[in-house]
Fold each of these.
Amino acid sequence: NTHIEKIPNQPKHVGIIMDGNGRWAKLRGKRRIFGHEAGVIKARELVETSVKIELEALTLYAFSSENWSRPKKEVSGLMSLFERTIEKYTSLLIDNNVRFKTAGDPSMLPKILKRKLEQMESITSENTGLKLTLAIAYGGQQDIINGIKLLIDDHNSQVIDINQMTVESFEDYLSFKDLPELDLIIRTSGETRLSNFMLWQSAYAELYFTKTLWPDFKITSLNKALHNYSERLRKLGK
Ligand code: FPP
């Protein structure tokens, strides 16, 4: 039941909106953070599985720009959970040859977390396996605006000519620029929205929604999503 292997036509780059932790906890009469903790265990499982099936890139939506407006206690609980998670899984990432990066605006993150994320990025920067990106304090719209600002800087200093701009060259100003094209977005817990996740990059991505709450997401659930994707591609190719 936990068997999974590389399949033909599997996506190169999968993005995941890990939704439903709060509801999962509530169903058990627990606090929301209990659900987030269960969510981290699933994220770990997913990373290990992605390594096993030789996925090229995996991007996880851990915290959106909009999540800053959640109750203070939940936000600080999440920040401390992220910190502990980085600490705990550094060796796992090293052992599995995973290259770790973040996407988002780190300016409001706690200093210690910021430093740990940077350390993890630099320790794993030469790794050649799975490209794991954690979208944290990330918003797709904000990322595009940030790109435009960088673009204008380059234009003003005559590094580029805005009139020569193409879709491909604009991507150099956005997060995820060094990753393969996003093929598949999975969102758990029954919501069918993108919620500001990888807006630019999702232009041609396949979307897969499941009612399963994130802490209940199993290897078989991933297997199902990947087979669904490969089947869609097969039909397109006909
Ligand atoms: C959405 O559930 C989940 C989050 C906002 C946090 C996601 C974070 C994790 C799963 C931890 C992973 C962390 C790392 C470092 C890999 P929700 O709170 O919106 O659930 P609800 O919709 O049921 O309220």
Note: Residues 117 and 200 are 24 Å apart (CA to CA).
Amino acid sequence: MKRALLLILAVFVALVATRYLTPASSVRAATPVKGDPKMKWNGEKVVKSDDEWKKQLTPEQYKVCRKAGTERAFTGAYWDNHEKGTYYCAACGLPLFSSETKFDSGTGWPSFWAPIHAENVTNREDNSLWSRRTENVCSRCDSHLGHVFPDGPKPTGLRYCMNSAALTFEKE
Ligand code: FE
């Protein structure tokens, strides 16, 4: 009887501990969780160690997403993709771009004139390579996606120049 009570107490303490010791703002998902293709980022972060990212991602994805690398033009999976569907973050699965805003930029990288939601893609100043550019990262997991330039088509005039390796496409 005493043992059963102790066990119940232990389970209770463990439950309380996991509820309060895990920060609500940090989600540790083993694999990318793809939800609603129109999902707006809710402010939660996906935080993983460098080793965890290395294990989860392919070497090419890791280089682009976590080390801000750039794939060679015309080599990625999506620059010439004309299918209807949604482009998710390759690292965490947050929906980022829709085929509805994709256009042929001629650059050899998948290009869009707007993200699905402004909240889902974060802009960062990038002063590397002796130039001033605006880097784009996934708002949820901070993975590098590409850069945004002010020479895109209407209606926004923006060109989100993305790496295929930072995206996973799902057909509508
Ligand atoms: Fe992400």
Note: DSSP finds three helices and eleven strands in the chain.
